[in-house]
């Protein structure tokens, strides 16, 4: 609900109301809020409560820069270590991305795109790097998702996926690393749309 904007930046998350809403006790709600705080999606303020926290423009760009470098590192290692079954799994997920893109289904595309990147993290065979990339991917989810609604972005993303897959199959570490970095980085029009999004929600 935070990711979809049902809870806006600064909204207070009340344990009692959430427990009633989902028909559970306060214990799992409290545990969920602690995990959200660890991810950075909410902020726990002593004696005040838990509040949704959305990053400002500078922090957002910094996170995307870090994400681009993490993805690049995962891609470089994956190019050396990926197995044929992992490549087949990537091709299968990419096929579902293509189906979603062809039907202009941005939400469906994002779900498969998320899995596409997670398979690359796993293929790097570095547990710590995979954990950090996955954590930041979750933190940036609402913003990465929003980018896909920019005109032409689905088609551009698909073209980049094809380059990444081809480079992985060839074991071309630098091509994978560069394409993944550019694929994730916030530049130009992407940044403009992110800022508009933040202003619209402020």
UniProtKB/TrEMBL annotation:
Signal peptide coordinates: none
Q: Which keywords appear in this protein's UniProt record, sorted alphabetically?
A: DNA-binding, Transcription, Transcription regulation
Q: Where, by residue number, does the polypeptide cross the bilayer?
A: none
Q: Which residues form the HTH gntR-type domain?
A: 1-55
Q: Could you tell me which PROSITE patterns the record lists for this protein? A: HTH_GNTR
| CDD domains xref list | WHTH_GntR
Molecular function (GO) terms listed? Answer: DNA binding; DNA-binding transcription factor activity
* The protein's name in its UniProt record: Putative HTH-type transcriptional regulator YdfH
**Gene encoding this polypeptide?**
ydfH_5
């Amino acid at each position: 609900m935070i990711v979809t904007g049902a809870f806006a930046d600064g909204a207070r998350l009340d344990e009692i109301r959430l427990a009633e809403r989902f028909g559970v006790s306060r214990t799992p709600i409290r545990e969920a809020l602690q995990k959200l705080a660890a991810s950075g999606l909410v902020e726990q303020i002593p004696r005040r409560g838990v509040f949704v926290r959305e990053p400002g423009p500078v922090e957002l760009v910094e996170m995307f820069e870090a994400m681009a470098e993490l993805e690049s590192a995962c891609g470089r290692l994956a190019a050396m270590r990926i197995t044929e079954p992992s490549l087949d799994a990537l091709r299968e997920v990419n096929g579902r991305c293509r189906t979603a893109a062809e039907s202009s289904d941005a939400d469906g595309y994002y779900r498969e795109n998320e899995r596409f990147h997670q398979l690359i993290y796993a293929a790097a065979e570095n547990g710590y790097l995979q954990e950090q990339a996955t954590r930041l991917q979750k933190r940036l989810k609402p913003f990465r998702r929003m980018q896909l609604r920019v005109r032409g972005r689905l088609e551009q993303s698909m073209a980049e996926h094809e380059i990444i897959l081809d480079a992985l199959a060839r074991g071309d570490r630098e091509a994978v690393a560069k394409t993944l970095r550019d694929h994730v980085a916030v530049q130009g029009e992407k940044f403009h749309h992110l800022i508009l999004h933040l202003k619209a929600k402020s």
